Structure formats: C-alpha cells, structure tokens
Amino acid sequence: MGAKSGLALKAVQWFIRGIQFLSCAVALALFSYFLAIASRNNITIPTWSKAVEGISGIGVIYTLLGLLLLCCVAGHPFASAIAIILDIAFIGSFIYVAQANRGGASSCRGTVNTVFGTHPASDSLGSGLPSYQQICRMHSAVLAVSIIAIVFFLISAFLEVVLVRHRRKESRFGPGPGNNYTSGYGKRGGFFSRFRRNKGPEEEAINPNALPEHTTPDQMRPSYNTESTAGGHKYGESGFQHEGQTAYPDTTSYPTAGQQQQHYGDGTYVR
Prior knowledge:
The chain has helices at 2-40, 47-73, 77-100, 132-173, 201-205; strands at residues 111-114, 117-120, 233-236, 239-242. Helix content is 51%, strand content 6%. This is MARVEL domain-containing protein.
C-alpha cells in the first residue's frame, strides 16, 4: 500500500512539473523571439522584457531538473525544502511576468500595448515582421501560461510537503507483518474503528484456538456393568465398598472358592 501511494504521488508531481516546464518554455520562446526581432531591427525594448526572459529561462532549467531528479530525491527533507523555497520564489516571479504582460488581457483590437510600445493593432513592425495585433496575442499567451505556472507552482509546493510526510511515515513503519514484510506501512482502522466498543471479559476469555477440556474423574458417570468402575465405589476406613456389596481390602489376600466371606473392621476374613 505504501509503495503504491508513493508511486502515485511521484506521478502526480511529475505531471505538475511537466506543466510548469511547458509554461516556462512558452514564455521563454516568445520573449526570445521578441528580443531577436529587436536585435535585428535595432528596436529599443524595455528592460522588463529581459527580466521576463531570464525568469522563464531559469524556470525551464529548474523544472527540467525537477523532472529528472524526481525519482531519486522525491520526499527527501533537504531536497524538498529547497524545492518548496524555489516554488514560492517562482510564484512571486510569475506574478511579475503576468503583470508585465497585462496588455495581452485586452481583445487585441484598436490600440494595443506591447513590448514594442503602444500602436494601432493593424500596424506592423516592418516588412516581413508581425503586426502589433499578433504581438498582442503573443502577450496574451504569455499571460495565460504565467497564471498556469503560478497555480501549479503552488500545488507543487504543497505536494512536496505531502511527499516528505509520506517518506517519513514509510521509514517509521518499514517492512513488517502489518504490511506483509514489504515497503510501506500497514493498514490501520478507519475513522469509525475508534468508536468500536471494547470487548467484555467474557469475550476476551474465549480463545477460539483452545482445545476442548478433558473429562476429569469427578465427572465420570456411575457404571452399572462392572464392579471395577471408579465412579461406583465408596471409600471407607477399612478399604472401599461397592454399592450394596462388601469389597475386598487391598492389604489382605482374597478368599478362595468355598470360603464364607466375613469382613471385620480390622480387615480380616473368616470362614
């Protein structure tokens, strides 16, 4: 159970890191395109565009490393602490990226505000270059992926905490009879198991594995077929006596045939 849940958490985190990587890659590609156009055509662009490209570039490197190292260091307290700090830092960074590309929130019609300045949407940067309307739509794409990156960086920071707690719980319990000597932790009672009543002394005293009790001598029934049955004898001072008959004592010899049996209190016999 523990191994399956750990694998599921890693798969979810891998998916989240993949979305973050794609978001950063889209922002990096579009602003690299903007900088390439400005460099080739000697167009001045604001400094914040270079900051956006730097943030998205570092985000690509970080998320790519996260994808590669997730199977090795997922859940380690030190690695997860660094990842949480960086996730929170990228949340703030992409809030800045979204604010810088707020011009893409418009309908990209009429007058548009782009990285190349404010111009009519129908105008173009030059021959063979995109129009301002197209550049505005590129800003809209960067704004969208920035919002997505903010949400997924927030989720990944929370999931890092879950991975650390899962790893600690798995190492605390370890292999044992509760988990069939496999990795992970054994099953525990559910929420309603806390409210189960305690067993009474009668229920606890019953052992389902106990053998049936053997018959004791005082539980033997009297026999009507033989005089040698233990349950049919009564013990006295001079030996033992059968019901309605005089028995022979243990200390004297038995009378022979033809002798009259007479029993005295001292244990002797006469004809």
